[in-house]
Write a structure and sequence with these properties.
Elements (H helix, E strand, L loop, with lengths): L4 E3 L7 E6 L5 E6 L4 E5 L4 E6 L8 E5 L7 E5 L4 E5 L5 E5 L6 E8 L5 E7 L6 E5 L5 E5 L6 E7 L7 E6 L4 E4 L20 E6 L5 E6 L4 E5 L11 E2 L6 E7 L2 E7 L6 E6 L10 E2 L1 E8 L2 E8 L2 E6 L4
Antiparallel strand pairs: 1-27, 2-3, 3-4, 4-5, 6-7, 7-8, 8-9, 10-11, 11-12, 12-13, 14-15, 15-16, 17-18, 18-19, 19-20, 21-22, 22-23, 23-24, 25-26, 26-27
């Protein structure tokens, strides 16, 4: 049985991620004001610190290109930094973005390549792309009418991924990264910027796409047809992040707010019903440690890791 623990973190950790290291070990990443830190969640040991002095980091994630070691990508005010996930050393800096990248996503493409996507904030309001193996820029994807705030990848059975992007227009656009074509009409319904998006595979083979906005509302969609699924969920007072996941085969949503509403709530992804009492923290991520699902959340006291309740 996993024992709850709190990992000390200097300053507030603003984003949590997870990845598999080259030896197959699960690692927890926490981004703070000065660095990104990696822990072994099984032992609580800090294993790597990424702190090369990047300016104004906005997001980070680990890419796993086929045939190459995993690399950490960090988006900053006007550049993308690439790091060795074992040593923490900076491998390369792309300072030619001429844009501020404010969100990242990654996907394995049908041709076997691995692509990093970034939401362009300053203009030309496009989705930036890089080959994760070579770290070289690729042609931009899509065109939008206003600043972007987030980008996500939706994996669909039997076809290549869909890339979604949203920003100040509140609409969510869907793009085919293989052809560059937009897929259908934008998803419209949010009254605030939908800054957090994700997806989860359903037991019947479909995929559920989910978005959370700065007004605290979570919406569910069919990613192919663009149709809304169920009623909107008023999950928090503001700034709702959302993590779709499967818990013992059941699709659920973990949401979190900020400020006075910095708690994590769990919902049935299909019915929208609240499943249990709120738990303290924000920016949740779920990992599997020694065969057991655990949840990590950020708080002013540090990063809390605890067994995931199976309600």
């Amino acid at each position: 049985m996993f024992q709850e623990r709190v990992l000390p973190h200097p300053g507030m950790a603003w984003v949590l991620r997870d990845f598999i290291d080259p030896d197959g070990g699960v690692r927890l990443l926490a981004g703070g004001p000065d660095a990104v830190r990696a822990w072994d969640p099984a032992t609580g040991e800090q294993v790597t610190v990424f702190d090369d002095g990047w300016p104004g980091a906005s997001d980070f994630l680990v890419c796993h290109p086929d045939g190459h070691a995993p690399v950490l990508a960090v988006a900053t005010e006007n550049s993308v930094w690439w790091h060795d996930t074992v040593t923490g050393e900076c491998i390369e800096v792309d300072e030619n973005t001429s844009d501020q990248v404010v969100g990242l996503a990654t996907a394995r493409m049908p041709d076997g390549t691995h692509t990093l996507f970034g939401a362009g904030f300053l203009g030309p309001f496009a989705i930036r792309r890089w080959d994760a193996a070579t770290r070289r820029p690729l042609p931009d994807l899509g065109g939008h009418d206003d600043h972007l705030a987030a980008v996500a990848v939706v994996g669909l059975p039997g076809r290549g991924p869909i890339v979604t992007a949203t920003g100040r227009s509140h609409a969510i656009h869907r793009w085919d990264p293989a052809t560059g074509a937009e897929i259908g009409a934008p998803l419209v319904g949010h009254d605030a910027i939908a800054h957090w998006m994700g997806s989860v595979a359903l037991p019947d083979g479909r995929t559920l796409f989910v978005s959370g906005d700065y007004g605290g509302t979570v919406r569910r969609w069919d990613p192919l047809t663009g149709e809304a699924v169920g009623e909107p969920i008023k999950a928090h007072q503001d700034h709702a992040t959302v993590l779709p996941l499967l818990v013992e085969g059941r699709p659920q949503l973990l949401t979190s707010g900020v400020g006075a509403d910095d708690v994590v709530r769990r919902w049935d992804a299909l019915t929208g019903d609240l499943l249990d009492e709120p738990a303290p923290g924000f920016s949740p991520v779920v990992l599997t440690v020694d065969g057991e699902q655990v949840i990590a959340t950020a708080s002013p006291a540090g990063v809390r890791i605890a067994p995931l309740r199976l309600s």
